[in-house]
């Protein structure tokens, strides 16, 4: 039998670290490294959004990814990244269900949005800087 009191902090940490790595990769490698700042801003402009929103999304994904990896302000960061994923969901909604559809489908951003809500509910979990700092030397359960 699984003891949730012992496994939940590690499950939350696995979700947090996975999301952190993927947000960091998506913002730094895909948007910034592959398309560049100007390319990303141009893409956002071509969709009818203010081009500066592309820079905001890059910053949110990179800084949010780093915060999730470190376990800092995880609940707030998860909720803060939610509009990014909801925006992606809206953008991909007309392309159908599967993400391998032309233009990418909406199931991947929908899953990301759900995972962010779950992370916000769970908190940072194990191995988080917030848990150590806020505990003041005491062991915290599931930050």
From TrEMBL:
<keyword id="KW-1003">Cell membrane</keyword>
<dbReference type="InterPro" id="IPR032808">
    <property type="entry name" value="DoxX"/>
</dbReference>
<keyword id="KW-1133">Transmembrane helix</keyword>
<feature type="transmembrane region" description="Helical">
    <location>
        <begin position="79"/>
        <end position="98"/>
    </location>
</feature>
<dbReference type="Pfam" id="PF07681">
    <property type="entry name" value="DoxX"/>
</dbReference>
<protein>
    <submittedName>
        <fullName>DoxX family protein</fullName>
    </submittedName>
</protein>
<keyword id="KW-0472">Membrane</keyword>
<comment type="similarity">
    <text>Belongs to the DoxX family.</text>
</comment>
<feature type="transmembrane region" description="Helical">
    <location>
        <begin position="21"/>
        <end position="46"/>
    </location>
</feature>
<feature type="transmembrane region" description="Helical">
    <location>
        <begin position="52"/>
        <end position="72"/>
    </location>
</feature>
<feature type="transmembrane region" description="Helical">
    <location>
        <begin position="110"/>
        <end position="129"/>
    </location>
</feature>
<dbReference type="InterPro" id="IPR051907">
    <property type="entry name" value="DoxX-like_oxidoreductase"/>
</dbReference>
<keyword id="KW-0812">Transmembrane</keyword>
